[in-house]
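Field reference: "sequence" (input) and "structure" (output). Example, Uu.00g144070.m01.CDS01:
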Amino acid sequence: MHQDELTQRLAERIVHHHKKMPFHDDGSKKRQKRCLVALAGGPGSGKSTIAEAVADKVSQQHVKCQAISIEGFMKPKSALSEEQLKKRGAIDTFDGEAVVNMFRTLRARGPGHELRVPVFDEEKSDPVPEGQLIEADTEAVIFEGIYMLADREPWRRIEELVDEKWFIHVRPELCRERVTERRTSKGITKTKEEALR
């Protein structure tokens, strides 16, 4: 399936969920809940690209949608052991409880309430608390991250807090090629060989 067709279909799923959300009883024509999506896939699978493209298509259908990376929930370097620093990006170097609590808060509050969440600062290579805003008038949010659908605590609790769960399947060799390019272009590694290792 062509990516444009895929993103259109996924956008339609979000709009469909949004239309099924009940309105508040106060006559304000505001929905009681946001449509929440958990999007997972391996490194280099295209999570961010697809999430942004889908969010744009949803917003074009008059349902304000944001794409949010959970990379900001990575624990700061200062909170990691020497062993964890060597494998930074592994599941135990993320604050899974904070991710689950964010979903619970969004489920409880719904549209009309804003929420600040952490963002990852590429230059500092560390998270910035409350660095990005889920705006009050946002009606749908696509959260993307490697471990969004992990079958272990506390990550597995996300499943009951979202309306849609998507996983991107990409050939491993393509992902490896993309991550290699990313690591060399950002200066994380000096050579392609180092990045491949």
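The first strand starts at residue 35 and ends at 41.
Residues 14 and 184 are 35 Å apart (CA to CA).
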